[in-house]
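Quick bug: ULK4 kinase output formatted oddly.
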Amino acid sequence: QIMKQVPVRFDLKSLHIPIYSAEKLSSMKDMDWNDFLQRVCSLLDSPEKSTGAARSKLNLLYYLCTVAVHKEVASKLISSQLFPILIQQLRSAANWDIRAKVARLIGLLALHTSELGENVPVSEAIILLTELLRENFRNSKLKQCLLPALGELLYLVASQEEKREHPRECWAVPSAAYTVLMRCLREGVRLFHC
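Here's what came back:
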């Protein structure tokens, strides 16, 4: 059963970066894009030592979710240094709300990316999501956050491999990912749709 996510809203005043529309981000010159990305990565990579810091990071993730629905922006973000930072946040963020929003952002990036570079660490994200699902298998709320991201990444890999004239295994998908996915589906988890 698919449950619709609530619309994402972010607080403009508490974002510590310039607020650009998806259209503006997609048409930015390289230098401006790199500056923007550097600020985003720096904020996401900072520790959540206080409630305010965690709230600020969540607000940034909400903003990124709103621009990730634009195909060009999603393709640029997933191929940038942001994606490894998202994986790292998914692995080690102390706050599970942040992990849930990171998983949602990863799912949105995978859903809206039109072109995936071979050097994007998609396999690492798939392995991590699989491990987190396995470790939290009895926690249906966490499964609702993690499973859509895993599904979108698997679909992205399959569609990218299908596009290639001479498909080769750029992104290894462990069989455990399919096993965990099928087990979740058999047990009838309610899913959030990105």
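Actually, after a second look the formatting is fine. The first helix runs from residue 22 to 26. Closing.
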